[in-house]
Write a structure and sequence with these properties.
Blueprint (H helix, E strand, L loop, with lengths): L25 H20 L9 H34 L4 H11 L2 H16 L3 H8 L3 H5 L1 H10 L6 H12 L2 H14 L1 E6 L2 E6 L10 H16 L2 H22 L6 H6 L4 H14 L2 H13 L27 H15 L1 H12 L3 E2 L11 E5 L4 E5 L6 H19 L12 H22 L3 H36 L6 H15 L13 H4 L13 H17 L6 H11 L5 H9 L7 H22 L1
Parallel strand pairs: 3-5
Antiparallel strand pairs: 1-2, 4-5
Helix pairs in contact: 1-2, 1-4, 2-3, 4-7, 4-8, 9-11, 14-25, 15-16, 15-17, 15-18, 17-18, 18-19, 18-22, 19-20, 19-22, 19-25, 22-25, 23-24
Length: 607
């Protein structure tokens, strides 16, 4: 009797080497020590020396900043640790309690940063520059201090700011946690081998080669999400309503000013990106039409856009791939781009930084999170044996590599905005896809790879554009009051039809998409979605640049990753690549790559 071969890579991550398990008595002791440290630092922050001040004040500021760094690193570790446990076991009440208790300490962290920012804001530019140069710790953190000084203009008066932080624990962030609980507990009934089984949202696949399976999964999931739509509408309304109340008090131009600031990005850059996409994405209609013909339908439905092509089951193009094979593929392709990148991926797998097991009870989605004091990351996903999962693995390891490259920088210069974070992850996907395409031998395999790449283009240029349009219009209407679940679905449907250029069949849209997409409910990050498109197009353009740069490009790429922690978005790109993101040239260079892939795809179909 044959026994199953042992897996090369463990699919369950190692968390025990990071911190004591939350059920052990050492963990609450650690949390309590952290709380005491925060309380002491918050009290200290209330009495920061004025700028300018006596010579001794620079040393006091330097000591304060070092203690702030120590506690923020611990805060990152604790939050990431509990977040990992809660994602892997969504129903565990202890983990949820710790999520809430750590969230309850956020007002102390907010108080510290609020006091720091107000102290920096009140100094003149000349005094601020002299202050930064007066101490080595301050000089090392100059960019961080400049950013915090800019942040101060997004702060309410001090008393109101601290009150808002206190109220946020049981307000906006509580609504976000409520959505996490609802989505984590949701069970979807689907038919498998003649039996009805229950699955969590993260286990439902829409990339099955069988259209009936995709269709049944889609309608089963939509039916389940509809049962919680009213609750999700409440959460979404209150998250957006809280933000808009704050924006009004701050006198911000609109609801995009804050997310642009968070991404260290100019509005002209966002407009240039969406403008280029709007002008040129009709080229994707040729791909969608061709894919519909290959799938044997007149027009695609929502659940067809990620479907594998029929007739591409030649060697290497199977819709099924094991975790071991997928992980090896990622390591090999990363190594072909850069030995350093490949060695990092192999280390992450061997040291069990990745949670990939397909089991019930996990939260949906995928993420990468960092542990600052350990200089390590952890990746969360659910691997269901698809090539799309391999891309997700590459995507999240791209995030982890970004943190790895920055690990020896000062902690406050390891923080990068989301749009540039998504550049690293989608660049990793591009490395994987382009290497596979170059090495593929058969027509079927090339078609499958190109189809996956173009399905990604549809996701970033159409799906995420629909999310952006939806959020924009929702926020516009939310100023006049709460919106019903039905109205939210109407806005989503209109956004999808505009973003997809009405390419899908009349009854093939997904109006309830806003209910199931957790990105809308992330209480700490407004307009979470457009950075994905930014990162995708930036990484696509970077990959195009790499084709002519030879062996020097991996080092240039590392320099860009380092720059993301200590420069504005536009400056980071211009200083390392020479391109101006506020104009159309770079975005068109990226879109040229997509157009070439469409031409390759259509040529292979006709061959």
């Amino acid at each position: 009797m044959k026994t199953a071969a042992a897996s090369k890579y463990d699919q369950i991550w190692d968390l025990d080497s990071l911190l004591p398990h939350p059920s052990r008595p050492e963990f609450p002791t650690l949390v309590e020590s952290f709380r005491h440290g925060l309380e002491a630092l918050a009290e200290r922050s209330d009495h920061l020396p004025a700028i300018p001040g006596p010579a001794a004040s620079a040393a006091a500021w330097g000591d304060f900043l070092q203690e702030c760094e120590r506690l923020e690193m611990l805060a990152v570790d604790l939050s990431a640790f509990i977040g990992c446990h809660a994602a892997a076991d969504a129903g565990n009440k202890l983990f949820r309690q710790y999520e809430a208790s750590l969230s309850a300490l956020d007002p102390l962290r907010e108080r510290i940063m609020t006091n720091l920012e107000f102290a920096l804001r009140d100094a003149s530019e000349a005094d601020f520059q002299a202050f930064v140069q007066s101490h080595p710790v301050l000089r090392a953190n100059e960019f961080f201090l400049i950013q915090r000084r800019k942040n101060a203009r997004l702060r309410l008066p001090r008393g109101e700011e601290l009150l808002a932080a206190d109220l946020a624990v049981d307000g906006i962030h509580a609504w976000g946690r409520l959505y996490d609980r609802i989505s984590g507990e949701l069970r979807i009934q689907v038919m498998e081998k003649g039996e009805i089984v229950e699955k969590s949202a993260g286990q439902i696949r829409y990339d099955s080669p069988e259209r009936t399976v995709r269709q049944n999964n889609f309608y089963a999931a939509d039916k389940a999400w509809k049962t919680v739509a009213d609750h999700c509408a409440d959460a979404l309304n209150h998250i957006a309503g809280t933000r808009q109340t704050l924006y009004k008090r701050l006198g911000l131009t609109d609801h995009l000013e804050a997310p642009l600031h968070r991404n260290r990005m100019q509005r002209s850059t966002l407009d240039a990106m969406w403008g280029a996409i709007t002008r040129r994405k009709s080229m994707l209609l040729k791909y969608l039409s061709a894919k519909a013909r290959l799938l044997g339908v007149d027009q695609l439905s929502w659940y067809d856009t990620q479907a594998p092509l029929p007739g591409t089951e030649e060697p290497g193009a199977s819709a099924e791939i094991s975790y071991d094979a997928g992980a090896d593929l990622v390591c090999q392709t990363f190594s072909a781009f850069s030995p350093d990148f490949g060695e990092f991926a192999a280390m992450s797998l061997k040291q069990r930084w990745i949670e990939a097991e397909n089991r019930s009870g996990k939260r949906q989605g995928a993420f990468c999170t960092g542990f600052a004091t350990k200089k390590q990351s952890r990746v969360f996903m659910t691997f269901t044996n698809s090539h799309d999962n391999v891309s997700t693995l590459a995507h999240e390891l791209g995030h982890a590599y970004h943190s790895w490259v920055l690990r020896d920088q000062p902690f406050f210069l390891q923080d990068y905005p989301m749009n540039l974070a998504e550049t690293a992850s989608t660049f990793a996907e591009a490395v994987l896809a382009e290497q596979r395409l170059a090495e593929s031998k058969s027509r079927g395999e090339k078609l499958a790879i190109l189809d996956h790449m173009l399905a990604d283009a549809v996701a970033y240029l159409m799906n995420i554009h629909a999310r952006f349009l939806f959020e924009n219009r929702f926020h516009d209407e939310r100023r006049d009051g709460e919106l019903s679940a039905a109205r939210l679905s109407e806005i989503m449907l209109a956004a999808q039809k505009e973003a997809y250029l009405d390419a899908l069949v009349a009854d093939g849209w997904y109006p309830d998409f806003w209910v199931s997409k957790l990105h809308f409910y992330i209480s700490g990050l407004p307009f979470y979605n457009f950075p994905y498109t930014f990162g995708y197009l930036l990484s696509t353009g970077l990959y195009a640049l790499s084709e002519g740069a030879g062996t020097e490009f991996p080092d240039q790429y590392r320099r860009l990753l380092v720059a993301t922690g200590c420069q504005e978005t536009e400056a980071a790109v211009k200083s390392t690549t020479g391109y101006d993101l506020s104009g159309p040239a770079f975005w068109n260079k990226s879109l040229d790559v997509i157009e070439r892939r469409i031409e390759q795809f259509l040529a292979l179909i006709e061959a």
